[in-house]
Amino acid sequence: MEAFFNFLHENLLLIYLLAFSILLGIEVISKVPAVLHTPLMSGANAIHGVVLVGAIIVLFNARMDDYLSLGLGFVAVVFGTLNVVGGFAVTDRMLEMFKKKKK
Questions:
Q1: Which of 12, 18, 62, 102 is the most exposed place for a label (fewest CB within 10 A)?
Q2: Are 23 and 30 in contact (CB under 8 A)?
Q3: Do residues 41 and 85 both lie within one domain?
Q4: Same domain for 90 and 58?
Q5: What's the mean pLDDT in 5-21?
Q6: In sequence order, which residues have a C-beta less than 8 Å from that of residue 63 and are 6 or more positions away?
Q7: DSSP state letter for 101
Q8: How would DSSP label each residue in 29-95?
Q9: If pLDDT is split at 50, 70 and 90, which confidence band does 33 have?
């Protein structure tokens, strides 16, 4: 238990920064009008693509005998890929709602 409290004490500034970032993110997102959600999702998908590239780079730099790093890297690449593909599918579907229907 003492190790946990030492960890909290050593990382208190980072914990405050994380809490502040969460509150700031919620405040910013709540002020975004509904019309801008589609472009913001496209931007978020691009960021997730960068995260996916980073996960691939980290996976390739892992040692071959470190199975934990390889396994976690593989899971990160799979989840990142699913996130990017799913995000673009949702964005495409949202853009379809704004198109005029054919008669």
A1: 102
A2: no
A3: yes
A4: yes
A5: 93
A6: 69
A7: P
A8: HHTS-GGGHHHHHHHHHHHHHHHHHHHHHHHHTS-TT-HHHHHHHHHHHHHHHHHHHHHHHHHHHHH
A9: confident
